[in-house]
Design a protein that fits this description.
The complex is a heterodimer of chains A (325) and B (251). Chain A is an all-alpha fold and 325 residues long. Chain A has 16 helices and two strands. In chain B, helix 6 links the parallel strand 7 and strand 8. The chains are: A mainly alpha (325), B alpha/beta (251). At the A-B interface, helix 8 and helix 9 of A face helix 2, helix 3 and helix 5 of B.
Chain lengths: 325, 251
């Protein structure tokens, strides 16, 4: 047990956080539950994206494609008579398959060129979904009646968030995580030591896109209506990237902090008519501030405060020692 | 697997062209098992490009590289490493935010040996001890001195479990005491059964260590053989020191 704790010092906090989310329906109001659902949704997106974008340093701006694939798979299959729950693994598999198809050509590109390519992929998917008949075009699709069950959806989304965090924690503690780190820090150096960088990136891409697609499927069931403008939106891709950056990229807790901040901001901003249309300005401003002053995000700020505090503490004994000599 | 006898590495007519520059011009040589084989030559002779072509970091324009009887050209760098041919980098490539032990662990986990668990930990410790980095195991690689970084390059490559280790100027920038240490390490590696291919500028180290060597100049092989003989050849002397005046008069 102590060995587990030493490896995962954040485990007690994670368990408390999970217990709080799972017990919330007992004491919280429906409005609060909605907010917590929202936070869990963003948490899945941020933490899953962070596996490829944060740990492996492959910044993708096309993740709305996977939210959309999950959401559309759920609605289309539900309309064909499937139970919404059974559609989730199908959406995950389709998203993972699509991530490999997209990854094979784009992972040949490095740095900003990869990022630019993923913007193109995300937009292409949105345009295609808007133009096809079976996806309902730009007006979107509605879930069949009788599929809405908020409480079940709440537990599923919270469960997915906790599974995502546990999976990321586990993967990054093992060989796979070291390969991701090596790729981020020096991809040529990683290859020179035997790391098949394309394969590792494809695996991380597939795992994270599958998780994101399940969140997309739950999103569709919860909101009962989806359109290219909601699930394939470029602004959604942007939000997915901003959360880990603001929280702390390539860390386990960074995306959680980012998701908390963003879901809180979203609630506050959407409630205020004056700010409703300007939220991208605020996100953009936040991004610039983080990049300029603390590229490691909220976690970096926290570490800096701890270091400051630790430096101030031992001053007393040093001063005493000086007096004694 | 190929028979144990015969050269372990056969380089045949390898050329590499970068646009108008012929960086390697039909270079051929063979390296035997258990040998310390050096590649020397003035700056820009194509030595590092040759190493890149051997391990698949760059593709030769023409020519072939056979390792343990298997053709390597067309394989990626990581595929070559897994077959037992690995190189270090002249410009060191540490993962600066990882600890020294984790740097080595990447090679242990993903190289030819692909060890896991307790065996992987043992291998990491063993490699760190051999390269005298044991006391620096839990330090971030970014804070190491240049001498330690050069040893870390060797440690990481060694961790992959190679048959042939290509060392690209591991003695560059070291002080005389460190060069002695590095030479002792190279000998110890050979004695443990490795074949070594070295790029080196330090003539004393090359002459003292190498069984055989090739000399490159402007991408071409201009000499080959035992160090004492090859280093005395007029073409080699000319490449390093310039022509003597009587050689400049054309026949």
């Amino acid at each position: 047990m102590t060995a587990v704790l030493r490896r995962h010092p954040m485990l007690p906090v994670g368990v408390a956080f999970g217990a709080f989310l799972l017990l919330a329906p007992v004491f919280a109001e429906r409005g609060t539950e909605n907010d917590l659902w929202n936070m869990s949704f963003f948490l899945v997106l941020a933490a899953a994206w962070n596996l490829l974008g944060g740990f492996a340093g492959q910044v993708s701006l096309g993740y709305s494609a996977f939210v959309g694939i999950g959401a559309y798979t759920t609605v289309l299959l539900a309309k064909a008579g499937w139970s919404p729950w059974l559609t989730l693994p199908v959406g995950a598999a389709l998203a993972a398959a699509f991530s490999v198809v997209v990854g094979l050509p784009t992972f040949r590109l490095r740095g900003p060129y990869f990022t630019i390519a993923t913007i193109g992929v995300g937009e292409a998917v949105r345009v295609i979904a808007s133009g096809l008949d079976f996806t309902g075009g730009s007006s979107g699709l509605r879930m069949p009646a009788g599929t809405f069950d908020f409480t079940a959806n709440y537990y599923a989304m919270v469960g997915l968030a906790l599974v995502t965090l546990a999976l990321v924690a586990w993967l990054t503690q093992h060989a796979f995580g070291l390969a991701l780190e090596a790729i981020r820090q020096d991809i040529d150096g990683a290859e020179a030591l035997g790391v098949n960088s394309t394969q590792v990136k494809l695996q991380a891409h597939a795992i994270s896109s599958a998780l994101v697609a399940v969140a997309g499927g739950l999103f569709a069931t919860n909101f009962q209506y989806i359109s290219p403008g909601s699930v394939f939106d470029f602004r959604l891709s942007l939000t997915i990237v901003l959360m880990p950056i603001v929280g702390g990229m390539g860390t386990l807790t960074g995306p959680v902090l980012g998701a908390m901040l963003f879901s809180y901001l979203q609630i506050k901003l959407l409630a205020s008519p004056a700010l409703r249309d300007s939220y991208l300005f605020i996100y953009g401003g936040l991004l610039i501030v983080v990049m300029l002053f603390e590229p490691k995000g909220i976690l970096g700020l926290w570490e800096r405060l701890i270091a400051l505090w630790a430096r101030r503490r031992p001053e007393q004994p040093v001063a005493e020692a000086r007096r004694a000599s | 697997m190929q028979a144990e006898s015969g050269p372990i590495l056969v380089v045949s007519s390898v050329s590499k062209r970068f646009g108008g520059l012929l960086a390697l011009d039909s270079v051929s040589f063979e390296v035997n098992r258990g040998e310390i084989f050096s590649v020397i030559g003035p700056n820009g002779a194509g030595k590092t490009t040759l190493f890149s072509c051997l391990v698949g970091a760059q593709r030769p324009t023409t020519g072939s590289v056979r390792f343990k009887g298997e053709e390597l050209s067309g394989l990626r760098n990581d595929e070559v490493v897994v077959r037992g041919l690995v190189r270090t980098h002249q410009i060191v490539k540490p993962f600066r935010d990882l600890t020294v032990a984790d740097n080595v662990r990447v090679g242990v986990l993903y190289g030819r040996l692909r060890l896991r668990g307790a065996k992987a930990r043992e291998r990491v410790d063993e490699v760190l001890t051999r390269t005298q980095l044991g006391t620096r195991a839990s330090v971030k690689a970014g804070v190491l001195s240049i001498g330690e970084l050069k040893r870390l390059e060797i440690a990481r490559a060694l961790a992959t479990g190679p048959d042939v280790l290509c060392l690209d100027e591991v003695m560059g920038g070291l002080n005389p005491a460190e060069i002695q240490q590095a030479m002792a390490l190279v000998r110890a590696l050979r004695d443990s059964g490795l074949t070594l291919l070295m790029i080196e500028h330090h003539v004393h180290a090359v002459a003292g260590l190498s069984d055989r060597l090739v000399v490159l100049n402007f991408g071409k092989k201009i000499a080959e053989g035992r160090p004492a003989e090859a280093l005395r050849e007029p073409a080699v002397v000319a490449a390093y020191l310039g022509h003597e005046s009587k050689e400049e008069t054309r026949a």
